[in-house]
Amino acid sequence: MTNATDLQTNSRIHELLKKHFGYDEFRPNQKEIIQNVLQGKDALAIMPTGGGKSLCFQLPALALNGTAIVISPLIALMKDQVDALQANGISAAFYNSSQASEEQQKIWDELQNGALKLLYVAPESLSLLQPLLNTIAISLFAIDEAHCISSWGHDFRPAYTRLGHLKQQFPKIPLIALTATADKATQADIMQQLRIPKAKKFITSFDRPNLYLDVRPGQNRLKQISSFLKNFRNESGIVYCLSRKSTETIAAKLNNSGYHAQAYHAGLSSEERNRIQDDFVNDRIPIIVATIAFGMGIDKSNVRWVIHYNMPKNIEGYYQEIGRSGRDGLDAHALLFYSFADVIQLRKFMQGTPTEAYQLAKLERMQQFAEALSCRRKALLNYFGEHLFEDCGNCDICTAPPEYFDGTLLAQKVCSAIYRLKGTEPLGMVLDVLRGAKNAAVYDKGYQHIKTYGAAKEVSWRDLQQYIIQMLNQGILEIRFHEKGRLLLTPLAEKILFENKKVQLAHILEADEKKKAVAEINKPAATSLFEKLKVLRAVLAKDMGVPAYVVFSDASLKDM
Ligand code: ADP
Ligand code: MG
């Protein structure tokens, strides 16, 4: 739909873009979001880090009458944005509890005089401004980092939950919520809590095709990092660790090996942190070894690599952190070390917290990503509700794929079972149904009568579980962990069920195990009964695509 008014706004917003921000073109979705706001409508914008969310409310703030109220969670972020706006000649200010009362009074006056185009406010300070808000002209509300409102998100901030009243108090003023990280359930939660049920959702692709996704076992990490860094002499990169202490020790070790690295964590003074950030952004320090305290709001385009020394606690965090590399669109390498010890450590942190169950479920998805046997990018994007139909060719799995077998039939059975269960049941029940389990949970629901009952009874419980996880990672299935972990079909599953699309599944043999097994096969005589059976298992899996288990009785164990 184009009419004269649209064309007018179109050229007007391009003009503002050039004049105030110096850019010639909009990034994906920016224009659509801006137009939506200018039409007075609410919006939920999901856009990856660095995608250009700020412009989506800054530009409308300039185009509309009145002051835009921007809710932002971090004082440092507010200050950076306000500095940048002022440098572009835009009247903007921030308001928070760290300011002296004279300063607050000055802002109060400016607001009353209508002198501000944008005011950034911490959610905790919004109530102080309440009496004033009713008396001034407000152009729009922007809720930045909106995932903070949801306890399902990964950065819950209680003060955000009080923002729900804004829409009630100002029903006619457009409200735009922005975030880089919200899975589907969090998106719904944000819309409900902000009371913008009719908000238009703008989801910008999360794909960052220039990032090489790489996962390696977390053994001899320092040695691995050392050889990794040989490919990146003098290039900027970030090592993320779990603890403050390890940032210090790893930075020290890298410095001893002739690299120039600096530790960064929340325990340092804010001057020190600012200095380090500045040195990094201006290429004076190439390597930062940091906790996750580092990076939010850092605008550096030439970060060539990110290493996760420890596994992040969820995919949102992982995505956000790797997203700090390769912002210039050139190749960058994201290396994740995966070790089970990290999983245990993270689980401990989560224990006893109010959102323990969600956190654990998210951790499990992170772990499944790290253990993926199919295209990592597919798995990553599937988590955010995006479906890649082809493998990416730019991850460790695509570069060195495991051995696959044609798993189409098995995948069809799984999809069919989930279809018949109407996407209401979690993994455990889907497994029980497919394996024809004779337990009360199945019988109570009458599932023994559905057509796929027992359709995969020849596959062991554990293997079937692994295959289903592979299907999840391939984007064929989706898990709703906020809804009892129920499994659902994605559009890809429909292609498999109804268009006979082929599915490749990887054999469930550990890589090392496989190598050993092949070596054993080549040996003239396998030594023990145990070894012989292991060889048999490998042959069954490798050559015939039949997953098999070696089961011992106590008696046979004594023989070995
Ligand atoms: P986000 O909040 O989504 O992480 P920002 O709003 O901080 O991202 O923007 C990231 C960077 O992209 C900033 O340096 C910003 O100036 C730049 N940017 C935003 N929009 C455009 C555009 N249309 N063209 C070029 N650069 C842009
Ligand atoms: Mg931002």
UniProtKB/TrEMBL annotation:
It catalyses: Couples ATP hydrolysis with the unwinding of duplex DNA by translocating in the 3'-5' direction. GO terms for biological process: DNA recombination; DNA repair; DNA replication; SOS response. Its cofactor is Zn(2+); Mg(2+). Residues 221-374 form the Helicase C-terminal domain. GO terms for molecular function: 3'-5' DNA helicase activity; ATP binding; DNA binding; four-way junction helicase activity; hydrolase activity; metal ion binding. The keyword RNA-binding does not apply. Coiled coil: none annotated. Residues 34-200 form the Helicase ATP-binding domain. Belongs to the helicase family. RecQ subfamily. This is DNA helicase RecQ. It comes from Cochleicola gelatinilyticus. The lineage of its organism: Bacteria, Pseudomonadati, Bacteroidota, Flavobacteriia, Flavobacteriales.
